[in-house]
Design brief:
globular, 419 residues, alpha/beta, 2 domains, two-stranded antiparallel sheet, 9% strand, Rossmann fold, 55% helix
Length: 419
């Protein structure tokens, strides 16, 4: 008999293969047959409940993963604006990092992500003193606390920033240079050279300039430079920064970072959906194996409280919860009802236990043959049906997220004002 860890590994590999080779819109009978076969191969000789407890611990670890991101740079470089952008906020929102032309940060101060209380963005004191010492600075800000550093500069990266990056590397932490206020520089260049201006050429010239500058200062690992706009994270190098951090962060922290980011592009929506899909089988396995309660008139049982909590969490992951939609509406200067109107999924406040049971019942009766359902063990049926339901639900929310994002980007009609 395989160990529980081996059973879990076998089961996980089979489920991941389904995600790679099929889609939710595949024929339900095929999906049902393939998934139930994987389930039976893994747990034909028992061990499902024990595996479910192991998976439950993994989900709890994921939920409790902490991430501390340090953002530093010279005074006025745009540190606070970047923190707000990463949190999907603007300076006027409650709890936003204050933005000003003078130094606002004298001591390290953290800002929680509005949907991820375990994630902290640290606004570190600006680096502007001529007597700046990297070692004393890192000691003052409690260097070991942070998972990685983002060093923000709005023009050239001066010697203070270079020295700080070198000190961070010596202590074997990751740091990344971010060149902010790119929009402003492009605007000024276009005004100066209206006949010959080419945005891509200017951006490439910036990248080359910074690369040459850093090559003179770093012998081994040269920190990467990313050109970004805090006003529009979808522009310039922010997607490349996300990809770099995905590679550099440990798996749990990578997952937390990815799910926390605003929905800045269609490609990122797909990336976030894929990250969430990779864990759906765990939710369904725990639901079927622990605290499962029979569903009336159906040959299955599940943990409806777990499913409900997961579905509500998906709204936050895609920024479709009421709080996120309100923040996006303020950023877009549109009424929140205008954003909600393009959603086809139920509103967050409509998601309750009765709706979860209704969804499971509908999926069972509509997609899966009763004779096949009745011939299988209840736990297996429960797993497959809740897994299918969550996959479909997630796909629908991802589509809604894209519709909302596009609506938020639409120009405001003359005479219209947001709320």
């Amino acid at each position: 008999m395989n160990s529980y860890a081996e059973k879990l590994s076998l089961f996980s590999e089979g489920i991941q293969a389904i995600l790679k080779n099929t889609a939710v819109n595949v024929d339900p009978d095929i999906f049902f047959n393939i998934t139930i076969k994987i389930y039976e191969e893994a747990f034909s000789d028992g061990g499902m409940k024990e595996a479910a407890f192991e998976v439950k611990e993994e989900l709890e670890e994921l939920e409790n993963t902490e991430l501390d991101i340090a953002i530093t740079g010279e005074t006025g470089s745009g540190k606070s604006s970047l923190i707000n952008a990463l949190r999907g906020m603007k300076a006027e929102d409650d709890g936003a990092a204050p933005v000003g032309v003078t130094e606002m940060t004298l001591d390290p101060k953290f800002y929680l992500h509005p949907n991820y209380p375990k994630m902290k963005f640290w606004d570190l004191p600006g680096i502007g003193s001529p007597h700046f010492s990297p070692d004393s600075y890192l000691k003052k800000v409690d260097f070991q606390r942070y998972d990685f550093f983002i060093i923000v500069g709005s023009e050239r990266f001066r010697s203070n920033l270079i020295n700080l990056a070198q000190a961070i590397q010596k202590m074997e932490k990751k740091c990344y240079f971010v060149r902010s206020k790119v929009d402003s520089d492009l605007y000024n260049m276009e005004r100066s050279y209206p006949n010959t201006f080419n945005a891509e050429e200017v951006l490439e010239m910036m990248r080359d300039d910074f690369k040459k500058q850093l090559e003179k200062c770093f012998r081994n690992t040269i920190p990467q430079v990313f050109l970004i706009s805090s006003w529009d994270l979808g522009k310039y190098d922010f997607p490349r920064l996300v990809e770099t951090l995905e590679k550099d962060l440990p798996s749990l922290k990578r997952h937390a970072f990815l799910l926390s980011l605003p929905m800045f592009s269609p490609e990122f929506t797909e990336k976030k959906k894929s990250a969430l899909k990779s864990h759906l089988w765990k939710i369904s396995l725990v639901s079927a194996g622990i605290n499962a309660i029979p569903i009336p008139d159906l040959p299955l049982a599940c943990d409806t409280a777990l499913l409900l909590g997961s579905m509500v969490a998906f709204y936050k992951r895609f920024e479709l919860d009421d709080g996120s939609l309100a923040r996006l509406a303020r950023l877009a200067r549109k009424p929140v009802e205008e954003l909600k109107a393009v959603m086809k999924s139920p509103q967050e406040k409509e998601i309750n236990r009765d709706l979860v049971i209704k969804e499971i019942t509908n999926y069972t009766k509509e997609f899966f043959p009763p004779s096949l359902v009745r011939s299988l063990v209840a736990a297996g049926v429960s797993f497959v049906i809740t897994y299918w339901m969550l996959l479909s639900f997630l796909d629908n929310l991802a589509e809604d997220a894209e519709r909302v994002r596009k609506k938020a980007l639409e120009p405001i009609a003359p005479g219209r004002h947001g709320t």
